[in-house]
Backbone:
């Protein structure tokens, strides 16, 4: 059938101008669930000013990844673009995106990761001791500090502990990402733009210092300043700064979410925690933990995969614009519309995952490997040419954190807290996960 005579996917555009954005923002999970039940795995809606098609499932993700850059292209709201910067990898498209990715990848290649592991472990030990002293804590904000500390140390060689001001400026900047993009003096968006300028000025100083005195330890900033293409061309200063900023957000909010979910799910599933602890007992004398050790922790790997399946930090992709008309599953996808693929719902597919609502790391053991039934069934990091650039960095940090935590500590959920999951901008429990925390065996 010619594309033009295919129907549009089912669904509704909602109200004029605002479309269905309000109900989506009110509860993205319920919004998706209701429409998926009503219309199936492909439907149309109207979000953030665009007629939009929502795609759910491994097949749909595969279709989008295969056509990324040809039929689809990343697009951002004007506020996002203003705050991230025009040189950011999240904004740049086409051939320029691919070139930029090659440069940035140099900071996340295996050799670079091996250098980061020791710093990650030192910072982890420091925080575990801090939480032990605190005895009761709300973990989400603590984990946010922890992941920001790691990101600042490894990306720009700065300890946020000694630079508390930096943490505050960063928070103001990131608050603006979900604000209304109208600027007037003193509003959230305006403050966020100022914070961006302050952060970039800070990066400028760091770059000047680095150019005069190269750092002893390789961090992301050093690697980006030295990165070259085949012709020996370097990234411009503006490219380095915009991408450092983007990586701070991409690299620490997502990890905070993943680690919080890991701690919550392990507290709710003591049987899994016991098994993970037994595995760690075999390695407890090996420190610092090497990449080789991590490879052998197969149960920990399964736990991490299951956490990222059940509670993916990013629940849906960034918005893509349709560059040329195409079709999927018997429906037309018109040029100029927006398209999203859904990570959360794809991970709940009953035809792939048995009892998908259950937390069960065994589904990824070598006999079952449920996710291998279809390509792109497990997509916490997206896929294709825009797959998460920090995927291996993130996996390293999650596993090191989990191994050190499980070896020596235990925690229990404090009573009377709301654990309901909020998914925007990143997945987290409503009250931030309140726990009692102590060294193993120290019963209170
Ligand atoms: C558990 C942690 C993380 C998760 C779940 C995650 C998830 C994702 C997802 C789903 C995408 C693709 C979005 C799309 O298709 O629209 C993405 C892209 C990206 N991520 Fe991550 N991420 C994580 C950690 C990190 C870290 C540590 C970094 C490192 C700085 C990072 C840097 C990036 C970058 C630069 C992109 C854009 C890639 C491109 O457009 O070419 N992420 N991430």
Residues:
């Amino acid at each position: 059938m010619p594309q033009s005579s295919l129907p549009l996917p089912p669904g509704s555009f909602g109200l004029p101008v605002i479309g269905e954005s309000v109900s989506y923002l009110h509860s993205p999970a319920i919004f998706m669930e209701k429409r998926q039940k009503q219309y199936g795995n492909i439907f149309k809606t109207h979000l953030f000013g665009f007629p939009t098609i929502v795609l759910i499932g491994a097949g749909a993700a595969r279709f989008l990844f295969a056509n990324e850059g040809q039929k689809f292209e990343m697009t951002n709201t004007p506020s996002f673009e203003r705050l991230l910067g025009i040189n950011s990898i999240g904004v740049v498209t086409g051939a320029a995106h691919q070139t930029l990715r090659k440069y940035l990848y140099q900071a996340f290649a295996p050799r670079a990761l091996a250098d980061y592991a020791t710093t990650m472990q030192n910072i982890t030990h420091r925080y575990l001791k801090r939480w032990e002293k605190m005895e009761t804590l709300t973990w989400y904000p603590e984990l946010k500090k922890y992941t920001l500390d790691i990101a600042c140390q490894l990306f720009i060689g700065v300890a946020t502990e000694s630079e508390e001001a930096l943490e505050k400026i960063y928070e103001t900047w990131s608050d603006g990402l979900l604000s209304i993009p109208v600027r007037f003096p003193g509003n959230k968006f305006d403050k966020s733009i100022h914070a961006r300028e302050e952060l970039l000025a800070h990066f400028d100083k760091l770059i000047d210092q680095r150019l005069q005195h190269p750092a002893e330890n390789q961090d992301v900033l050093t690697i980006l300043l030295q990165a070259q293409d085949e012709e020996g061309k370097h990234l411009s200063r503006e490219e380095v700064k915009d991408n450092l900023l983007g990586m701070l957000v991409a690299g620490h909010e997502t990890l905070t979410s993943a680690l919080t979910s890991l701690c919550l799910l392990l507290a709710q599933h003591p049987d899994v925690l016991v098994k993970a602890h037994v595995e760690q007992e075999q390695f407890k004398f090996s420190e610092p933990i090497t990449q080789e050790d991590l490879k052998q922790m197969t149960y920990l790997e399964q736990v991490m995969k299951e956490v990222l399946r059940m509670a993916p930090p990013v629940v849906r992709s960034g918005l893509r614009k349709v560059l040329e008309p195409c079709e999927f599953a018997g429906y037309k996808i018109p040029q100029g519309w927006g398209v999203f693929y859904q990570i959360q719902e794809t991970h709940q597919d009953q035809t792939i995952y048995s009892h998908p609502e259950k937390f069960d790391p065994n589904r990824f053991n070598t006999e079952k490997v449920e996710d291998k039934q279809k390509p792109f069934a497990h997509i916490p990091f997206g896929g294709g040419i825009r797959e998460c650039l920090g995927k291996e960095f993130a996996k390293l940090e999650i596993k090191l954190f989990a191994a050190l935590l499980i070896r020596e500590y235990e925690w229990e959920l404090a009573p009377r807290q709301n654990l309901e999951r909020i998914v925007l901008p990143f997945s987290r429990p409503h009250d931030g996960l309140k726990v009692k925390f102590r060294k193993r065996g120290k019963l209170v």
Observations:
- The first strand starts at residue 42 and ends at 47.
- The pocket of protoporphyrin IX containing FE is lined by residues 89-90, 101, 247, 250-251, 254-255, 258, 313-314, 317-318, 380-382, 386, 388-390, 393-394 (CB under 6 Å).
